Amino acid sequence: MPRDNYAEGFGYQWNQHRLTQLDSHSGRPISRNRLMNQSGWTFAELRGKKVLECGSGAGRFTEVLCESGAEVTSVDISSAVHANAASNGHFPNLRLVQASIYELPFPADSFDFLFCCGVIQHTPDVERTFKTLLRYLRPGGRFCIDVYAAPIAYPHPRQLLRPITKRVPPAKLYAFVEKAVPVLLPLSLKLSAVPLVGPCLARLVPVANHRHLGLTDTETALRWSVLDTFDWLSPRYEKPQTRRRLSRWAGELALREVSIERHRGLYVIRGMR
Ligand SMILES: C[S@@+](CC[C@H](N)C(=O)[O-])C[C@H]1O[C@@H](n2cnc3c(N)ncnc32)[C@H](O)[C@@H]1O
User: Does ligand 1 lie within 6 Å of residue 122's CB atom?
Assistant: First the structure.
């Protein structure tokens, strides 16, 4: 991939935060639980199967997939693959590739499972991305893809900042976020603790708040917040989707056993090809 592809900010982010969200680093099964809850898959069914993970970032889910004993092929367009290699390169069942979803160097119909979380809203053409991904799954294979839910993501105050912040060079924006988060996060945490309306109040402050994860140690909470606040503000593309649109795409591809569930600010679509 050319160094200046549209995902340069992701490469920067994941090399700054190579370990932050890895369960082996946090000592808690946060990524494992999310992968299992969203996909509904079990380690027993993944073992020995060919799994394609697209947009793997620093590899928080790559680690879990490798631990399941699956034959994992993990792809990212950005230099995040170097962070993933440093953390997960020791797994003999991992093949790591820097490539775009639009130009994957694999034959169609060649994977048993497809996992793509946190990615498609950040691509230039979300419908094309969704439909391209499904091509690589064999008929009868299972997929799990998530995307920002339009009704939750559009009314967020970060949308007022993004027209500016997405144009700022990654290192400069990161330095700004690192200064802003220690000021804004305590306020956001206080607001989110207000009974009943807390989560709505906290949304007024444009800082990522992981109160729901119960990160007790302040340093860890700050690291996660810097990472995800940068992740909100820096991407060139952020294109949240409606449930209706996902459902239409699934129908056009004749996907089977499809479910679309809302998990916090995301729609998770899963099923079988
Ligand atoms: C928000 S990160 C999510 C990373 C990881 N899935 C996670 O949840 O931690 C989105 C990732 O998608 C990658 N990405 C964006 N467009 C892509 C494309 N066309 N092909 C492959 N990866 C892409 C970015 O480089 C980035 O690492």
Answer: yes
- What DSSP assignment string belongs to 225-247? HHHHHHHHHS-S----B-HHHHH
Which residue has a Cα nearest atom 25 of ligand 1? 78
* Structure-block tokens of residue 133: 């991904």
Instruction: Provide mean pLDDT across the span 70-80.
Output: 97
pLDDT tens sequence across 245-260: 999 999 999 999 999 9
Compute CA distances 88 → 29, 50, 74, 99, whole Å.
16, 17, 11, 18
Q: What is the DSSP letter of 125?
A: -
CATH number of 8-150+240-272: 3.40.50.150, 1.10.10.60, 3.30.750.210, 2.60.40.10?
3.40.50.150
Domain with CATH 3.40.50.150 in the chain: 8-150+240-272
User: What is the 63 CA–ligand 1 centroid distance (Å)?
Assistant: 15
Please name the residue that has the structure tokens 């989560």. Answer: 199
Q: Cα 190 to the chain's mean position, in Å?
A: 27
Q: Is the CB of 63 under 6 A from ligand 1?
A: no
> Nearest residue CA, atom 17 of ligand 1?
77
| pLDDT per position as a tens digit, 35-68 | 999 999 999 999 999 999 999 999 999 999 999 9
